[in-house]
Design brief:
By secondary structure, the protein is an alpha+beta fold. The protein is built from five helices and 15 strands. The longest helix is centred in the C-terminal third of the chain and has 14 residues, at 208-221. It is globular and about 55 Å long. The two termini are 26 Å apart. 40% of the residues are buried.
C-alpha cells in the first residue's frame, strides 16, 4: 500500500490567528490549542501550525506521510538512495515519529500507526473528508525527475496523467497529490527570489462563489485574518508564477503570507 500524505506543517509567530483562519474559512476542525501549536484536520490531512522558535524559518515548512511499515521504507532507501538519512523525532510531536529527507534535501515526516507519539487528530478515526479540504502540496526543486522518482520508488506514490509538455510531476496516494515542479531562478524575474522548497497548499472547496463570499465576510468581520496584502509589479509576477499550477483557479495567501491555491471540486 502506498504511503499516505497525511500531514502538513506551517511555522508561524501567529499560530493561534492562523488556526482561526483555517477553521473559519476552510472548516477545518481540531483537538484544541497547545501552548506552541494548533492541530487541525480536514478529515484526511492534519494541518499543524507550529509556533516559530528562534532561528526557525517561518512559512510552509514540511509535509508528512503515514506508512504501513517504516522498516520497509528504510530498506528501499538504503538500496536505491544510500545518501538519504533519517532521524527519530522527539515524542512531543503528535505526528512525526521519523524525520527524513528526499534527494534534494526537502524534509518530510514518517509516521506509522501505533507509534508512541501519535495522538490527537492523528490517532482518531476519520469521519470523512470535509467539503473544503487540502487537495495538493506543490514542491519546487532543481531536479524534479530525481525527486519524483524518489517519491514513486520509496513511498509508492503513483504518477497521474498530465498534458503533453507539462514539466511537472503529479504524484498521488489516491486522495492527495504531491506536485513536483522544476525550480529555475529565472522564474523569479521581476519578483523576490524564493529558494527551492514547498511553495503552496492547494484546497478544494464545494463552491467557489460561496468560498469568495465567506472570504469577504471573514475580512469584514475580522480584518486581522485578511490575506496579507501585497501590491505592485513584484506581487503580480509572483501570482502569475503561482497560477501556473493547473490544480487551482483562485490564488490567495493566509494572514501570515503562506500561499494558497483554491479550486472548486
Amino acid at each position: 500500500m502506498p504511503a499516505r500524505l497525511k500531514h502538513v506543517a506551517i511555522v508561524s509567530q501567529n499560530h493561534t490567528l492562523l488556526g482561526q483562519f483555517y477553521e473559519t474559512l476552510f472548516g477545518m476542525t481540531g483537538d484544541g490549542r497547545a501552548e506552541g501549536a494548533v492541530s487541525l484536520t480536514d478529515g484526511y490531512v492534519g494541518l499543524n501550525v507550529n509556533n516559530r522558535a528562534p532561528g526557525r524559518q517561518g512559512g510552509l515548512d514540511h509535509f508528512g506521510f503515514e506508512v504501513d511499515d517504516v522498516d520497509a521504507i528504510f530498506a528501499r532507501v538504503q538500496d536505491d538512495f544510500p545518501t538519504i538519512e533519517w532521524l527519530k523525532r522527539p515524542t512531543n510531536r503528535p505526528f512525526a515519529g521519523i524525520g527524513m529527507h528526499d534527494p534534494a534535501g526537502n524534509v518530510f515526516d514518517l509516521s506509522q500507526a501505533g507509534m508512541e507519539n501519535r495522538r490527537g487528530i492523528y490517532d482518531q478515526s476519520s469521519n470523512g473528508v470535509h467539503p473544503r479540504h487540502i487537495d495538493h502540496i506543490f514542491l519546487r526543486t532543481v531536479d524534479p525527475e530525481l525527486v519524483a522518482r524518489f517519491y514513486i520508488d520509496v513511498l509508492g506514490l503513483t504518477p497521474r496523467e498530465k498534458p503533453t509538455g507539462d514539466p511537472n510531476h503529479y504524484l498521488t496516494d489516491g486522495q492527495m497529490t504531491l506536485v513536483v515542479a522544476p525550480w529555475h531562478i529565472t522564474d523569479y524575474a521581476g519578483s523576490g527570489i524564493e529558494r527551492p522548497a514547498s511553495e503552496h497548499i492547494g484546497f478544494v472547496v464545494e463552491d467557489m462563489d460561496a468560498f469568495r463570499s465567506d472570504l469577504a465576510a471573514l475580512i469584514e468581520k475580522n480584518p486581522a485574518m485578511a490575506p496579507r496584502p501585497k501590491k505592485g509589479d513584484e506581487a503580480e509576477a509572483r501570482v502569475k508564477l503561482l497560477s501556473q499550477c493547473h490544480y487551482g483557479e483562485f490564488q490567495l495567501c493566509d494572514p501570515d503570507g503562506v500561499l494558497l491555491d483554491v479550486r472548486a471540486g
